[in-house]
Amino acid sequence: MRILLVDIGNTNLKWAWLQDGEMSALERAGYQANGITAQAYCCWSHAEKPEKVVVANVAGQSVEDELLQWVTNEWHIDMEVVAASAQQLGVKNAYACPEQLGVDRWLALIAAYKSNTAPVCVVDCGTAITIDALTADGQHQGGLILPGLAMMRQVMLERTQIPRIGKSENIELLAGDTAGAIAAGSLHAAAALVERVAQQMGASPTIVLTGSDAFRLKAVMKLEAEVDPELVMHGLAMVAQS
Predict the structure, then answer these.
(1) Where are the domains of the chain?
(2) Which runs of consecutive H residues, i.e. helices, occur in 22-83?
(3) E strands of the chain, at which residues?
(4) Which is deepest, 35, 37, 167, 218, by most CB within 10 Å?
(5) Is 104 marked active-site?
(6) What is d(CA 104, CA 20) in angstroms, rounded to the nearest whole number?
(7) Are 7 and 104 in contact (CB under 8 A)?
(8) Catalytic member of 20, 65, 104, 177
(9) What pLDDT is attached to residue 162?
(10) What is the pLDDT of residue 154?
């Protein structure tokens, strides 16, 4: 079976092809809320028709509806939309209302659980940063959500009189200029919170980072961490085949 896996994020459309259990390399493109049809046509109109399209969506119902219409009109097949549930593939959701857990977080937990035998701290560093704790037996212990690195810096500049000076890639804890101080503040704040959650979990959990800023966060962490840029997509592939 040939399956198109689609991860609709807040700013990027990511996809991969799954065939006979093998997943292609992850591809991505930016999109606008009212322009996903054009992006879909550009990316997939000349591709071989899949038997199934499986979607994870955190961008809202209107984006999902627009993509569904394109899939229906172009390929005349159904589109399966994944959502978090109380329990799936060995992972047990900590939320009282399971469907309220973001599907990206849920899929990352599923993928991390299948790849580890120890407790796992799963961190997705994208538009927002999410941190989730998972026991060795698959019990989700809950999590945290905070603004992503770019959002932290943007809010700081918008809500203060700090001048808009150039960006900085500073990763040192203490900076010698304003741009560096803002960059270091957001980066080290996120790293410290991840490490605090890991400490709270005890038993030396495996820390798994994913998302566009994963490597930047890893660079300043005091604890060992591994990076899996395709963690959510791996989870989506597991659900699609289950």
Answers:
(1) 2-81, 87-238
(2) 36-44, 61-75
(3) 2-8, 12-19, 22-23, 27-30, 52-57, 79-81, 87-88, 91-92, 120-125, 128-134, 140-147, 206-210, 226-227
(4) 218
(5) yes
(6) 24
(7) yes
(8) 104
(9) 76
(10) 86
Instruction: Compute the C-alpha angle 120/53/241, nearest 5°.
Output: 50
Question: What is the C-alpha to C-alpha distance for residues 206 and 142, in angstroms, rounded to an integer?
Answer: 16
Q: Which two three-digit tokens encode residue 211?
A: 């998302």
Q: Can you read off the two tokens belonging to residue 157?
A: 């500049």
| CA–CA distances in Å: residue 163 to residues 56, 105, 201 | 39, 35, 40
Who contacts 185 (Cβ-Cβ below 8 Å, separation ≥6)? Answer: 152, 156
CB 144 within 8 A of CB 49: no
The rounded distance, in Å, linking the Cα atoms of 199 and 98 is: 26
- Whole-model pTM: value is 0.91
Tokens describing residue 163? 């001048």
**What is the rounded end-to-end Cα distance, in angstroms, of the chain?**
13
Give domain 2-81's CATH superfamily. ATPase, nucleotide binding domain (3.30.420.40)
- Could you report the per-residue pLDDT of 187-198, keeping only the tens digit for each? 999 999 999 999
Tokens of 99: 């469907």
Asked, colleague to colleague, whether 2-81 and 87-238 share their fold, the answer is yes
Q: What is the DSSP letter of 26?
A: P
Tell me how far apart the alpha carbons of residues 242 and 238 are, in angstroms, rounded to a whole number: 6
Protein fold of 87-238: Nucleotidyltransferase; domain 5 (3.30.420)
3-state DSSP call for residue 167? Answer: coil
Closest CA to 5 of 104, 84, 91: 104
Q: What pLDDT score does 9 carry?
A: 86
- To the nearest 10°, report the CA torsion of 31, 2, 66, 47: 60
**β-strands 128-134, 140-147 pairing:** antiparallel
